[in-house]
Amino acid sequence: MSEVKRILNFWKEVNLLTPVTIKSIAFKNQESLSAKDVLKVPYNRIEDSLLLNNAEKYEIEIGFGDIKNTYLYEKGNIEKEDFVDGDGGESFIFAFKIDGDKKYKEDSFTISKFAFILLKNIISKNYDDIEYEIKKFVENIEIDLKSYENYNVENVKKITSLILKELNIDNLDEKILKKSFYLKLFSSNEEEDSNESSFFQMDFYTKDLEIIAKTNLKDNSLLSNIIYSKANKNRQKIDDNKEFLAEITLPKNMPIGKWPSKYNPSLMQAAAINICTSKEYSPNIFSVNGPPGTGKTTLLKEIIADTIVKKAKIIADLNSTDLELIRTNTTNPYYLNYYKIPAELKKLGIIVSSNNNSAVENISKDLPKAEDVLSKDTLTNLFDVNEQENIYFTKDSENIFGDNPRTWGLISAPYGKKQNIQKILAILPEKNKKIDDFNFNFDTNIPDFKKALSNFQEKYEKVLKYRENFNSNVEKFFRNKDKIAEINNSSDQISNLKNKIENLIEELKKVQDNKEYKDSILKQKREQKSNIENSYSIFTKITNKIAGEKNPKILELNKDIEILNEELININKDLRNIENDKDELHKKIKVLENSKKILKELEEEINMFFKTYSSNENDLKLLERCSDLENFYNDIINNEKTQESCPWGIEEFNKLREELFACSLSLIEAYIVNSKGIKANLKLLKLLLNGENLGYSIEERKNVFKECFHTLNLLIPVLSTTFASVSRAFKDFEENELGIVIIDEAGQATPFSAMGLLYRANRCIIVGDPLQVEPVMTVTSTLIRAIANKYELNKLEKEFNIAGKIFNYTSPSLSIQTLADYANLYYGKIGETEVGCPLVVHRRCLSPMFDISNRISYDNRMINKCMPDKVKVDYVLEKNEFIDVKGQEKGNGDHYVKEQGEKIIEIIKDCIENREIDVFENSKHLYVISPFTTVINGLKNDIKKAFKDGNKEAVNNWCNTCLGTVHKFQGKEANSVILLLGCDNNSKSSAQWAAQAANILNVAATRAKKRFSIIGDLELWGKLNFFKDAKEVLDKFNKE
User: By Cβ atoms counted within 10 A, which residue in 111, 214, 372, 948 is the most buried?
Assistant: First the structure.
């Protein structure tokens, strides 16, 4: 079995064994029960339930619990585990539905697989056998459930007793089984699948994990690379790579569309944006490490803008609103045809997701916010709702989001949940309305496709040409700088060359003198030889000629003459070489002297570059900085000026790119409004999502729905959903059939929760921070180890280093962010932690909160650009400090210390009574965060008692919103934050658990914009990892 298969099977079973707990309201509040509420009713009070005894006809889901998890672990022979917060909790057991006639709703019975597997002690069996046993049990109970004609209170109790008996837990002590009914009222069409239990919220991943585990994933597929990435020689560290950063931030790599804003991204934001949007660099897996306040959403906006421009370019190239018609085999003539969306457009649809519902909905609500793109905050007035009647389906956006706050266009919308989908469907064509008569909300001034096309093409070419010229001039600028540097060195070069010529002249004279000397010697030798030969008689001359020279003197002279001739040949050669060298040096001097003449010309070109591309002082300063490469990239990790700069992000270019983004939206809008095929698909989508039977076969319905959804994703470029909704919302989609998936807050997402969406993605961008909130894994470590042993995960060699801790696939804190970071071709480092492209410029928290976070989590890599208040503001916390409060915790796993809670109550009372700060009226006044749920529960009870005579609703709302563990506050912020620690000397191990990683303290500190305090036993906590650092930072801050 491959590594990927083993890991998938492991995750599949971990998901199966996730305990299920239910959030509910107390039985005493049943009269104010709303349709969304779950009512918890004690077993012996079920007769008093208004729901079951009401004569009204409505559907009710009946759930039952709660059983101690420690008992279940014991039954499953799972090694005992010590729990640091509470006693291990309780689990829900089963649920079923009754309809309006109080009859059992067929196939609605569900059981907690976690509880069943442990109660039956079948964890050692293979997955298929476990599923078979669960299926057989459910089928048998179904028979019993159907046997009752009417589900009155008596019969509900009877069937409950029967099910408990089948599970062998009917006679358990009340301390182990706290018998409670959970009741939920809802209409039959509230959920897409009304038989799906609304209680079993943790079982949203099983179907997708089973599908993926059976799929033959290729080794190089997106999902395989994320699950088990292998060594890649092309992987590179970029955060200190000067050459790469200089290249990736060149104008040629900048996207030609820009989100409306007068502000530039920082250096690492720009690098991430350009990597994601550049054809040359963009990978199918890209991750960004975004600590709090570093502009993750800003980065995503730029990527979204570029994607929309690319969509518009594809539409422009189509040059028509016609789509390919596909005919089905339905017998319904009205729905015979649907239309095929071009494949390249499908790849550019964007789905934003997270396991945090508020995080994804915040993104889809933030993108269209009108107040963020008013003329004063952008480079044009093209997105200002006060100046433009319509920007991009503006009225339809208002119909989805309302007008508080106002929205500028239909750029995004929440999807996934039924209620979100219904809001979207409300703006689509009605069933009985002709396609030709539907123009969205354009009663008049229907967008003209040809005009929009012409405007786009003109602007596109203009921006493209500007970028090409800008990049060409940037490259020419650097060439000119190099030439000027050469020329400025030419005076020394000329002097050196002249010295060389002088040396050559001297050498030439020496060689010439030597030649003259050799010539004179040669002349003498020849004369001597001639004299001797002239003294011979005629007879001797003839004899010598016939027999050869015999005179020794003549022979010697001949030899000398020969040597001298050879020497003179070499000397003449040297003379020629010296003359040539001298000529070459003279030429070089001439070139250098000529180049000095063009120095002024080059300097004028440099000045013209600055003049051409800097329309204001800020542009000029930016160009001067980023054109000085040596200083700009010097000590790049710690260079604040460089890190906050966006190379080449000049106003004129940005304005053109912003205009192109507006033209792109106008073209897409005109294309949609004027396309019969688009509107026909949207009408079909509305019918399909409303559950209408259009006569399609199963396969046809799937194909029709996919094209219709891609049509919706063209209309609304960004759709958001939680991971929990993916299996249902995208059940028809297979591998790589969705477009770009963006996962936000990925550091707190378990890997298996993201598998369904990543499996369907064509590309993914993973954004988060593994040093913030860790994933919530409710499966115990001992249970995880038992499952891991089944699939031999201990044999996998891959490990992950996060803040000095080594993680593997069995680590509960392993997140999808870490897997993506290791699969990413472009990474950075924080200490020894490999992260995705790191964002380092922080703009949320003042010191000392920033200083604490930077020291304990980010290796002092972050740069703080958060601006302090210009005028004095009174906050709930008057100073930043570690408040030492000792006391005794409640014990038995409950770490609440009453004295510490009383300190918080004292602070709140002082604010209300003496400082005119009503803490309860505004959730941004104060958050109280704790490592432990038991501490929050204890504080919540004491606050409600302390303020029982005040506005109870406001106090309750504040407690529910502003008190919690770190997971509750990911992505949120308040002016003041208190970290309430709890614990005493009897629970040192729990305190040590909270201090084993910096995450808890890091999250708490970075929720605070203005003030931060820690309340706890200083003697206990002040010596522990990270808390010791925090105390030192707070003390130092207060001394300064």
Answer: 111
